[in-house]
Known about the structure:
Elements (H helix, E strand, L loop, with lengths): L2 E7 L5 H10 L4 E6 L17 E4 L2 E4 L6 E4 L2 H8 L3 E5 L7 H10 L4 E5 L7 H8 L4 E4 L2 H9 L7 E3 L25 E5 L8 H9 L8 E5 L5 H11 L3 E5 L3 H10 L2 E4 L5 H7 L5 E4 L14 E4 L4 H12 L2 H17 L3 H16 L6
Helix pairs in contact: 1-12, 6-7, 6-10
Amino acid sequence: MSTGLMQRVCAGYRVPLFDILAETLPGGLSLYAGDPRPDEMIDQSRKPQKAAFYHARNRHLFSGRFYLCIQQDVLDWLGETDPQLLIMEANMRYLSNASAAHWMHGKDRPVIGWGLGTGSTGGLMLKRHLRLFDALITYSSAGKQSYMAAGFPEERIFIACNAAAPRPTRAMPIRPPDRYDGRPVVLYVGRLQARKRLDLLMAACAAQPEALRPLLWIIGDGPIRGELEETARSVYPQTEFFGALYGDELTAHFDRADLFCLPGTGGLALQQAMASALPLIAAEADGTQADLVRPGNGIQVTPGELQELSAAITKMLADPVKLRKMGAESFRIVKEEINLEAMAAVFADAADRVLEKGLRR
């Protein structure tokens, strides 16, 4: 008995999860994924070591947020691997999902959808889409509520909080409990895109009282790096760009920072920051942040609101003693609740439940 996992793209940050799933899901894992659109700049340098990988033939239609994707050889992959269980991204833009789900159901085999939630989509098309799935795995409580609102049964929805890092095995990083080593360091890690709103973060740092003005470290690369560097020179020269970092080098920068901030969309780096005992500021985006950013370890802010972001940074940096306590709470959450192992355990539980035929359409 084997498990198949359909992805549009095998993003590098997902590979550790796929390898854990290969060890925990029934019969191992066959991963089916193709190439991103040229403008997406998705890191594909890491490949699974334990999951079998099948390179999909992706064909993308249209562009921007209106794109669609057809995976042209999905039925060949299914016929070759013959999975007893199929997990796929619950995304209506992926037009091959329906044919793959019908192939599975024609053999009386279950299909699990994996997604953020319904977003703003509704109506008959959404209901038809959700009927493809015997169960759903979503990233957050907000995602579960959206699926329930669309009529999907609550008992067939599982929450696997989004994780990009394993459960910490090292001791919590120690920082001075009541002060900073020189200026405090505010850290951002992620792709450099307009939707990440790093221009807003620079402006918020520039608005801080002189005594609290931090060093702003930006780690990552992307299509607007040159534009951002030019903005930094005029808006906030205390900004330093490090490019893309990985492994121990990235961890060292997390450990040297004092506060982690994501002012725009996205959120996987939040969990990596928590593993280094960092308190968080994050813009409210797709709902996944709410499970990670809580009153005890951070602040959620309204996207695009400069004054709100600036006030949150001031509030956090003005009290280093409280800031360290919030960082300790971040570390506790990622060690005890939200990590790759916990995420994989939810996938395994969902797989067990649908294979027992207790949770079928």
